[in-house]
Write a structure and sequence with these properties.
The protein is elongated, with a radius of gyration of 20 Å. The strands form two sheets. It has a four-stranded antiparallel beta sheet, with no helix packed on it. The protein contains no helices and seven strands. With 109 residues, the chain is an all-beta fold.
């Protein structure tokens, strides 16, 4: 149909199906980064069904499968002194938005 505010342009009606991000009730809890001062890092999340994605290079972790620098947390891991760990948690059921990205720098004593 014609757009009367902008002559010469057409307007298309669109219908979105499914849940939009602004309709979701909450975010996944942010992961916590802990280290033992010897370089061993442990990641945890209050949402037990959430998967934690992390990088040790300081780059932003990507949600989904392991790709690039992004790894999926399964067990504590060892990093060198000064490593910048970034992590994000996400509940794969799709009922919550991903968490905020958290960052921690590991200092080996």
């Amino acid at each position: 149909r014609p757009n009367y505010d902008y002559p010469g342009y057409l307007v298309y009606d669109a219908t979105f199906e499914g849940q939009l991000p602004q309709d979701m009730l909450s975010r996944t809890a942010a992961p916590e980064i802990a280290d033992d001062d010897a370089g061993t890092v442990t990641l945890s999340c209050a949402d037990t069904s959430a998967s934690i994605y992390y990088t040790i290079s300081g780059t932003m972790p990507q949600l989904g499968e392991e790709e690039g620098d992004t790894l999926v947390y399964t067990a504590p891991f060892v990093v060198p002194d000064g490593a910048a760990v970034r992590a994000v948690a996400w509940d794969p059921s799709g009922t919550k938005l991903p968490s905020d990205v958290v960052k921690g720098v590991v200092n080996v004593v």
